UniProtKB/TrEMBL annotation:
This is Amidohydrolase. Residues 48-539 form the Amidohydrolase domain. SUPFAM superfamilies: Composite domain of metallo-dependent hydrolases (SSF51338), Metallo-dependent hydrolases (SSF51556). Coiled coil: none annotated. Residues 447-472 are annotated as: Disordered. InterPro entries: Amidohydro_3, Metal-dep_hydrolase_composite, Metal_Hydrolase, YtcJ-like.
Length: 542
């Protein structure tokens, strides 16, 4: 047994106040919460007492939507998030390429390495000249090195000519279902690959071209602990599942992973007998991930009315209605929950319609009844009349508060003055829905405290916009923390195991130097993370 003492223990975000100064842990589970003087006699001689130095202990924060493989690889790729111009992005890529070449020479692997150059998080919407880039600009700084750069929303690849050649793509390549290649006036590919048109690059990335993924995931685990995270719901592919499995097999996986199955891998998952909840306490199967549409930043979200000034019409239907319903029925019949990506109002309506259809199939006995929790990932822009449907259908809106504060200017420009419930956290909660919160990292930083601040203030850390964007959708601190604790647990079907600090639950705690219920809202993203405890063991401490 282990007794954690000298703490302010807040066992539930719903309570929001300390209910003791100590937690007693037996094995990997909470045995008791209360006063150290009462709990100390329960310890046997020689059992461990850990002083938490007056810190605040909360239920462990879980990020309900992370692309952990992309995040991990991004830590070793060209970082373009803060670039405010095409020129700045190109300079960053050129510097990264130089570093890769010098490292290959130092390791004695030159000229065999580097074979591919990767980068992340460019966003032409915030450049001083907001123009979509092309391969020729990239050719000028990368030459013959195949180069692929993910947009900040991870829905578009920007590649150079060498990458197009390596991928076997040219002007004769047709647009795939659910995606498109940008073309110039002569019909030549510009190097912008949208939605499913980028799958060939995804396959290169998954092949190991970006380095040792298992080692990168272990490094990422340390970075996620430093943000106060005890677990994530991962939405990357089978290569990432294999990487986590490798860490787990060697005792190095020490945060809880709920691993989604991507729709193209459904047959494999079914053949292996996976179902939601299969696995163990550290690496378990989550939902099947389906894409309904694209993204706001790439102008490919599916809308009832086209985005203002966009050349992409109503957006992209990545999975058509018939295909979506087929995937829902196959998944649910096999005991797999479904998490469907939907950004635009039309996409969200279609997905809610599909979940309603699935409920009818269950009630008629066509699909077996089960306690599966289905989700919509992002649920960013909703028709007002669709808000109430989430609770009515038991569908979890799995949302990312930092998207709202990052995107509000773009959303205002592209949405215009149409009636819309955008990032409608308050409206969804008031309608009875259970929110799960995440970051969509690496699209946004995997910072739960940053997400809590965004949900409470609807502002960026610099205070913009004054008073908060659409402030009627703000949440209380407790409601925001709930999204990262009990909300995330419910979405994963783990509400009986995680999300609160009470006997029988996993001893997974986020330890903070300050009380988020007591600080000014503007201070929330700046609260220092003291440590992370998972399975009753300290994994990170500063």
């Amino acid at each position: 047994m282990t007794l954690f003492v000298n703490a302010r223990v807040i066992p539930s975000a719903r309570i929001g106040e300390a209910r003791g100064d100590a937690v007693l842990v037996r094995g990997e589970r909470v045995a008791a919460v209360g006063q150290a003087t009462r709990l100390h006699p329960d310890l046997a001689a020689g059992e461990e007492v850990i002083d938490l130095q007056g810190a605040v202990v909360l239920p462990g924060f879980v990020d309900a939507h992370v692309h952990t493989g992309l995040y991990a690889r991004g830590l070793f790729s060209a970082a373009l998030r803060d670039c405010t111009s095409l020129e700045a992005a190109l300079q960053r890529v050129a510097a990264h390429l130089r570093d890769r070449v010098e490292a290959a020479k130092a390791e004695g692997t030159w000229p065999q390495q580097p074979q591919w150059i990767f980068g992340q998080a460019w966003d032409h919407n915030v450049w001083d000249v907001p123009q979509v880039p092309d391969r020729r600009a990239l050719d000028a700084v990368t030459g013959s090195f195949p180069t692929a750069l993910h947009s900040t929303d991870a829905h578009t690849w920007w590649v150079n000519s060498a990458a197009l050649e390596a991928l076997g793509l040219d002007a004769s390549t047709p647009d795939p279902v659910g995606g498109s290649f940008d073309r110039d006036t002569d019909g030549q590919l510009t190097g912008i690959l949208r939605e499913s048109a980028g799958r060939a690059v995804d396959q290169i990335l998954a092949s190991g071209a970006a380095g040792d993924l298992t080692a990168q995931l272990e490094h990422a685990q340390r970075q996620l602990w430093a943000q106060g995270l005890v677990g994530v719901h991962d939405f990357d592919g089978e290569d990432v599942r294999a990487g986590f499995a490798a860490l787990h097999a060697t005792g190095r996986l020490r945060m809880r992973i709920t691993k989604a199955v991507l729709a193209p891998d459904l047959d494999l998952a079914l053949a292996e007998g996976r179902y939601t909840g299969s696995g163990d306490a550290w690496l378990r199967t989550g939902p099947v991930k389906i894409f309904s549409d694209g993204a706001l930043g790439s102008h490919t979200c599916l809308m009832h009315e086209p985005l203002v000034g966009s050349t992409h019409g109503h957006g992209v239907a990545v999975t058509e209605e018939t295909g979506l319903r087929d995937l829902l029925a196959r998944s649910a019949s096999a005991g797999l929950a479904v998490a469907t990506h939907a950004i635009g109002d039309r996409a969200n309506e279609l997905v809610l319609d599909a979940y309603q259809w699935l409920a009818e199939q269950v009630s008629s006995g066509v699909v077996p009844a089960s306690p599966l929790v289905h989700r919509i990932e992002h649920a960013q822009h909703l028709a007002v009349e669709d808000v109430r449907r989430f609770a009515a259908l038991g569908v979890v809106p799995s949302m990312q508060p930092l998207h709202a504060t990052a995107d509000f200017e773009l959303a205002e420009r592209l949405m215009g003055d149409r009636p819309m419930a955008s990032y409608a956290w308050r409206s969804l909660i008031d309608a009875g829905a259970t929110l799960a919160f995440g970051s969509d990292a690496p699209v946004e930083p995997p910072s739960p405290l940053g997400g809590i601040h965004a949900a409470v203030t609807r502002q960026r850390p610099d205070g913009r916009p004054d008073g908060g964007w659409q402030p009627q959708e703000r949440l209380s601190v407790g409601e925001a923390i709930t999204g990262f604790t009990t909300g995330a647990a419910h979405a994963a079907g783990m509400g009986h195991l995680t999300g609160e600090i009470r006997p029988g639950m996993f001893a997974d705690f986020t330890v903070l130097r300050e009380d988020p219920f007591a600080v000014a809202p503007s201070d929330l993203p700046h609260i220092p993370v003291a440590g992370v405890i998972t399975g009753g063991r300290v994994r990170h401490w500063v």
